[in-house]
Design brief:
Layout lengths: L5 E6 L3 H11 L8 E6 L13 E5 H9 L8 E3 L1 E6 L5 E5 L9 E5 H13 L4 E5 L3 E3 L7 E5 L2 E10 L8 E16 L6 E6 L4 E6 L7 E7 L1 H9 L2 H12 L6 E3 L4 E9 L4 E2 L2 E3 L5 E2 L7 H20 L7 H29 L4 H16 L1 H13 L4
Protein name: Putative 2-octaprenyl-6-methoxyphenol hydroxylase
Pathway: Cofactor biosynthesis; ubiquinone biosynthesis
GO molecular function: 2-octaprenyl-6-methoxyphenol hydroxylase activity; FAD binding
Length: 385
């Protein structure tokens, strides 16, 4: 019999990996042996200094609350306003349409990470930090191999959630996201704005820390993104105001700006023997509609649900459970990926006929509830098999 060190090894200690560790630690049956491998390189990425904000939907809040990982810092999104710059048509989605307190929430990345990290630290998960871990599996083997810092470990199942892989890119959007915060002269509490422009989508969201302020996610060309990064605060504030329009009055930038390149990355096989890929390691999406972490958390919930029969006896073959997981996540992943891939491309096509059709589509969504509700419901909680 092959030597096995862990029932489950989790590669990556971002929010998805930490959420999976929390969920497995809370399993009501016999507790599996779980190890969490993280790359200990603050120079590459220090979560405590990460300035990004995340848009989490109602379903993600419910799941994180179940894991006791919901952060105190958050701002509610009660109404979403979607429009297209220079075209007629817009659609409104309100929390009252779905009888929920909020459609979603804006939370700091660092707050989500810290909350989940705290829970994992107080649990039974074994921690391994150091150089990035490598994973290898062999056909017919009863375990996969993890190597870190010159040490080799074996686990019955390995779950990779350590970010996008270079060989999984399907599309370079030729866009960068400019991330910052600003304060509008005429703010509207609880409103989120998704404005499609020829440069790319511009999201103006409630700020989770600063009162009456907005989190800004401005998608534009790499060249313009670098120009916006180099601009002084007065120039950037004026550019943002001109780009968004006068609906909220002039903007005043509050924080340092950061830029991130945007691409669509999709792993061909989410299950390969005893190796499972979830979260950003399985798919990295365009930030339009803010679905990345929501999808990753649904991966976590789906995996734990599928593994429940196996967790009662980890020495049995996990193949049926892993196959069921892959099948159960196929529709949600496909719908969300296509939606977030299509939206920014059609609105930035530069074709006047397509742009006009997009404006009419937004108008139709606003006027026709049977069209609007399925889209809103998917963004609210995703597809659940």
């Amino acid at each position: 019999m092959e030597k096995v060190d862990f029932d489950i090894a989790i590669i990556g200690a971002g929010p998805v990996g930490l959420a999976l560790a929390c969920a497995l630690d809370a399993f009501p049956g016999p507790r599996p042996t779980v190890a969490l491998f993280q790359a200990d390189n603050p120079a590459m990425h220090n979560p405590a200094r990460d300035t990004r904000v995340l848009a989490l939907n109602h379903g993600s809040r419910v799941f994180l609350e179940q894991l006791q990982g919901w952060p105190n810092e958050h701002a509610a999104i009660e109404t979403v306003h979607v429009s297209q710059k220079g075209r007629l048509g817009r659609t409104l989605i309100s929390h009252s349409d779905f009888n929920v307190a909020a459609l979603g929430y804006v939370v700091p990345y660092r707050a989500v990470h810290a909350s989940l990290q705290h829970n994992v630290s107080g649990g039974h998960t074994l921690r391994h930090a150091g150089a990035p871990a490598t994973v290898a599996g062999e056909p017919g083997s009863t375990a996969a191999t993890i190597t870190q810092n010159g040490h080799t470990y074996r686990a019955r199942i390995v779950v990779q959630c350590d970010g996008a892989k270079p060989d999984t890119q399907l599309r370079d959007y030729n866009q960068h996201a400019v991330i910052t915060s600003a304060r509008a002269a005429l703010p509207r509490s609880g409103w989120a704005w998704e404005r499609f422009t020829r440069e790319g989508p511009l999201a103006v969201l409630p700020h989770p820390v600063f009162a009456d302020a907005q989190s800004i996610v401005w998608c534009t060309s790499p060249t313009r993104a670098r120009q916006l990064l180099a601009a002084d605060d007065a120039r950037f504030s004026a550019e943002l105001t001109a780009h968004f329009g006068d609906r909220l009055g002039p903007f005043t930038v509050l924080e340092q700006r950061h830029i991130f390149p945007l691409a669509l990355n999709v792993s061909k096989n989410t299950v390969n023997g005893r190796i499972v890929t979830i979260g950003n390691a399985a798919q990295t999406l365009h930030p339009v509609a803010g679905q990345g972490l929501n999808l990753g958390l649904r991966d976590v919930a789906g995996l734990v649900h599928a593994l429940q029969p196996w967790l009662t006896d980890p020495e049995q073959d996990p193949a049926p459970a892993l196959s069921a997981f892959a099948e159960s996540r196929r529709a949600d992943r496909g719908i969300t990926r296509r939606l977030t891939d299509l939206m920014p491309r059609i609105f930035t096509s530069g074709n006047p006929l397509i742009e006009h059709a997009c404006g009419l589509s937004l108008m139709a969504l606003d006027l026709t509830e049977p069209l609007r509700r399925p889209l809103a419901r998917h963004l609210l909680q995703g597809y659940r098999h």
